[in-house]
Amino acid sequence: MAVLAGGNKALSVGWMTILAITSAVIAPASLYLLLPWVAGYQAMTVDAVYRMMGTLIGIQLLPLGVGLGIRYFRPGMADRILGPSLRLGKVLNVAAIVLVLAAYYDLLLEVRLKGLIGMILLLMVSLAAGWFLGGRGVENRKTLALTTSLRNVGVGLVIATDAFGARLP
Questions:
Q1: Cα 152 from Cα 119, distance rounded (Å)
Q2: What is the CA radius of gyration of the chain?
Q3: pLDDT computed for residue 81 by the predictor
Q4: What is the pTM assigned to this prediction?
Q5: How confident is the model at residue 84 (pLDDT cuts 50, 70, 90)?
Q6: To pair with 131 at 20 to 30 A between CA atoms, which of 4, 11, 122, 159?
Q7: What is d(CA 95, CA 109) in angstroms, rounded to the nearest whole number?
Q8: pLDDT score recorded for residue 168
Q9: What is the Cα–Cα distance from 16 to 30, expressed in whole angstroms?
Q10: Average pLDDT of the residues in 52-69
Q11: Residue 156's closest CA among 125, 110, 119, 131?
Q12: Are 143 and 2 in contact (CB under 8 A)?
């Protein structure tokens, strides 16, 4: 997304790597501290240590590591599969959005106003933090703003799946 918006590709990959690694630790810790406040009196449990960290590692760190390994050890092959991989990535992103909306439609309708406001605030704070901490160039600011804000969407999906998955029909 950062590249599509005119951001810095190398910086985007670097930040995604750093954020993927740190969120495997920070997201479960934050969830443990914030879940009682957000859930109120509703009983909720999330297996933050094994299931959530395993999911983050399996769906984010492992593919990222494989991609970086291919780029490092087989740069010619990486160049050849770049175009098809970008197209596949776009299709998979659209499919993921459609599947999440279809699978969680009823649950999304149950989100309380406090939760919706919290999600919007997280997005806005992430965008603003990325923009203001992104350095001097607009290209770098776009990269960090999009990387930090979109990164939270993926972590949010993992948390939502883990916390609410049992409620699905």
A1: 10
A2: 17
A3: 93
A4: 0.55
A5: very high
A6: 159
A7: 20
A8: 41
A9: 19
A10: 79
A11: 119
A12: yes
Handedness of CA 21, 75, 91, 131 (dihedral sign): positive
User: How far is CA 94 from each of CA 67, 76, 99, 101, 106, rounded to the nearest angstrom?
Assistant: 21, 28, 9, 11, 20
pLDDT at residue 169 is higher than 50: no
Q: How far is CA 70 from CA 46, 67, 90, 111, in A?
A: 34, 5, 20, 41
Token pair 């950062």: residue: 2
pLDDT digits (tens, 9 = 90+) for 105-152: 887 777 777 777 877 888 888 889 888 888 888 888 888 888 777 765
